[in-house]
Structures are given as C-alpha cells and as structure tokens.
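Example 5.3 — GTP cyclohydrolase-2
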Amino acid sequence: MLEATVRQQVTVPLRFGDGYATTAQVMTFDGLVDGKEHLALGLGDWQRALKKSAAGGRAPLVRPHSECLTGDVFGSQRCDCGPQLREAAERIADQGGFLLYLRQEGRGIGLYAKLDAYALQDAGLDTYEANVALGRGEDERDYSAAAQMLFALGAGRIRLLSNNPDKEIQLAKCGIDVAQRVPTGVHMSAANVRYLATKASHTAHTIELPLAE
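Solution (predicted structure tokens):
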C-alpha cells in the first residue's frame, strides 16, 4: 500500500446541536489513493492512546464515518448517520482515538445518486435494491484511504467503532490490526426502521431492532 503523510493539523472546537462540545485535532493528508479530501479528527487524549497501544495496551478507538450531508448536517431521519456521528465523537473523546470523516456520500455513489435512490425507495425498493437499480453497486465504499490515514497516524492497531463487518474486513485486508469491533448504539426512528432492518438482514450489521422482529 502507498504511504500517506499528514499534511496539516489544526485545532477545531466542536459543538453539536444538543450542546455537546469537545475539541478535535483535525488532520489532512497527502498521498491518499483516491485523491479525496478525507479528514481525521484526533479526539480525547489520542496521543496517549497511541502510546498505550504501542506498549501492548488497549488500542485507540476509531470510527471511519462516511460523509452523509442529509443526516450529518440536516438531521435527516431516513438514516442513522447523524446520531452515529454524534455518538462517535463523545465515545472517542472519552477514550482517545480518531474519527475518520470519509468523503464517500451515499455509500460511495454521491449525493445526487443517493437522492435518486431515495426516490426509488419511496417507490418500494430497499436501500440496496435502489442502488443496483441505478446501475451502481450495493455499497461502493472503499476503506483503502482510511487504512492509509491510520498508518500515517501511527494507528496500525485499533478498536473499530462500527456495526458494519465490511469495514473490519476491508481494513484488515489493508493491514490494519482490528483488535476489537465495538458496536454503536441503535438510533431508530419511524422513518429509518426499514433502512436499519435491511442493513441488519442484508449485510449482517450488528443492529438489534425490536420493531423489525
């Protein structure tokens, strides 16, 4: 795998809509394989977490979070992305680690195509069927750049904050040692229960949905 390097690091105070606040060290990179402007947010005492991991202790907590404009920014109830982002920021800040904000909207198909997929979902298709009907893959996300970012940060061994087994599989193939996969909470609403149930049944996300039983 090609080596990436940290190109810039700046301190950014963060405040979420519910009032939760923390401070992130936001890092940009040179040499990412896909040429996109992905970010790493160092949260909590991430330097100490790296040192502990290098000494054989607990690995830093890491969440690769794919960009979701509708959920992260506008609070869309059709997915659980916004609440997962908010949850990840606090949990990582508490334990020390990294939030990787990856520019792969709509499971990699882009914003306009994602909204086209929403229209097909309104007509009865599920989230994966809609992508395929548009001539796209069910999930086109690639975590090679995420692995490059982690290596550049010195985080070749991590605890992965995710319900998605594909993230663990892809990162492991890129050489990242996933010491543990830590599930996120279940952020369910009337508008996203079918979406979450499909993720659980179709791609083995670790999501327990009482309403989906």
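Remark. The first strand starts at residue 5 and ends at 15.
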